UniProtKB/TrEMBL annotation, chain B:
Name of the protein this chain belongs to: RNA polymerase sigma factor
InterPro entries: RNA_pol_sigma-70-like (IPR039425), RNA_pol_sigma-70_dom (IPR014284), RNA_pol_sigma70_ECF_CS (IPR000838), RNA_pol_sigma70_r2 (IPR007627), RNA_pol_sigma70_r4_t2 (IPR013249), RNA_pol_sigma_r2 (IPR013325), RNA_pol_sigma_r3/r4-like (IPR013324), WH-like_DNA-bd_sf (IPR036388)
Source organism of this protein record: Candidatus Collierbacteria bacterium GW2011_GWA2_46_26
Family: Belongs to the sigma-70 factor family. ECF subfamily.
One Gene Ontology term of the molecular function aspect: sigma factor activity
Domain of life: Bacteria
Domain RNA polymerase sigma factor 70 region 4 type: 118-169
Length: 170, 176
């Protein structure tokens, strides 16, 4: 029985019926797996951000802002995200065959983690702190801003004040 | 000088195909025993082991030489067995006349077989989650580290599962 295993395997090996896959195959596989994972991560962030925007109250002109947002959406991103997720899962299965991974669980874990993080950021109001939008006046006055630098450059090093005698015309 | 598994793999990858036979020789018996333990069917186990060797050969470039080859090949057999069982949709009981080759004389072999049967019966009543690390540790003589690599679980979990499995085994064997 055991002889058969050896014979059958070696017959296939020696006849060339089975060949060792080249190293590049695994390098590319790993690369595409990472790209797929990054693509799926970005797509999840993208879609959840959109969802969050949709669920939030937008105040006045909310519908207009939503329409503007939809109009500038890069629509190519959606098929790219779907393809990258599918590619990532397929490659994870094919190239990492000796590791037991449940792609559905990996993806679910990813979605769940990102959802929790986004929800927590929204609830704690961290987005307001981290990504606060300020008006043009703030940008002008912000230390190190272009406007601020220009002002510093034009400020004279010393100011000659007119003495009271000169002012009086004496 | 006897070459290590990893050295043989290096030679095979460089083009010395026939050396793969020594890998098959070294592992086929152990892997067949392990696969039979998992799938509970000798014919199916034979297919699993054969497919595992073929898969391993094709993917030799994907093997990381800084890791142990034995853990890698056991992992492949584990995965192939799981796939095979999933395809079958049901678990078959261990065959009563299953033969564990030992190479000892007749009387010793009878006792050995009886002992193995008793252990196998007890193991069969354990969940795979517990019985697999136990079988790898005692039957395949793998270290915690190797079991951790094969089953992709932390070493601490391996230790806990083996400890629980031993306690459960005691209870089950006492009942029988």
């Amino acid at each position: 029985m055991q002889k058969t295993i050896k014979n059958e395997v070696m017959e296939k090996v020696e006849s060339g019926a089975i060949k060792i896959r080249p190293k590049i195959y695994f390098v590319l596989g790993g690369l595409f797996s990472i790209l797929g994972l990054v693509g799926s991560l970005l797509s999840i962030i993208y879609i959840s951000s959109l969802g969050r925007f949709l669920l939030k109250s937008h105040g006045p002109m909310g519908a207009y802002r939503w329409n503007e947002l939809v109009a500038v959406l890069p629509l190519w991103f959606v098929p790219l995200a779907i393809i990258s997720v599918a590619l990532g899962i397929t490659l994870l299965r094919r190239f990492d065959f000796s590791y037991r991974k449940n792609p559905v669980l990996v993806l679910l874990g990813l979605v769940l983690t990102i959802s929790i993080v986004i929800y927590a950021i929204g609830v704690l109001g961290l987005d307001e702190v981290m990504f606060r939008r300020r008006g043009p006046r703030y940008q002008e006055q912000k230390p190190g801003s272009a406007m601020q630098r220009r002002r510093t450059e034009h400020t004279p090093l010393f100011v000659v004040e007119a003495s009271p005698e000169i002012e009086a015309g004496n | 000088m006897k070459l290590s598994d990893e050295q043989i793999v290096g030679e095979v990858v460089l083009g010395n195909k026939t050396l793969f036979a020594s890998i098959v020789d070294r592992y086929q018996e152990k892997l067949l025993r392990y696969a039979t333990y998992l799938v509970h069917d000798t014919d199916e186990a034979q297919d699993v082991v054969q497919d595992s060797f073929i898969s391993a050969y094709k993917n030799l470039n994907g093997f990381r030489r800084d890791k142990k080859f034995s853990s890698w090949i056991y992992r492949i057999v584990h995965n192939m067995s799981m796939n095979s069982m999933r395809n079958r949709w049901r678990f078959l009981p261990m065959l009563p006349d299953f033969d564990w080759p030992s190479g000892q004389d007749l009387e010793e072999e009878m006792m050995y077989k009886e002992k193995i049967k008793m252990v196998s019966d007890c193991l069969d009543n354990l969940k795979l989650k517990y019985s697999e690390p136990l079988a790898l540790y005692y039957l395949e003589e793998k270290t915690y580290r190797e079991i951790s690599d094969i089953l992709r679980i932390p070493e601490g979990t391996v230790a806990i599962r083996i400890s629980r499995a031993k306690k459960l085994m005691k209870q089950i064997c006492k009942k029988q």
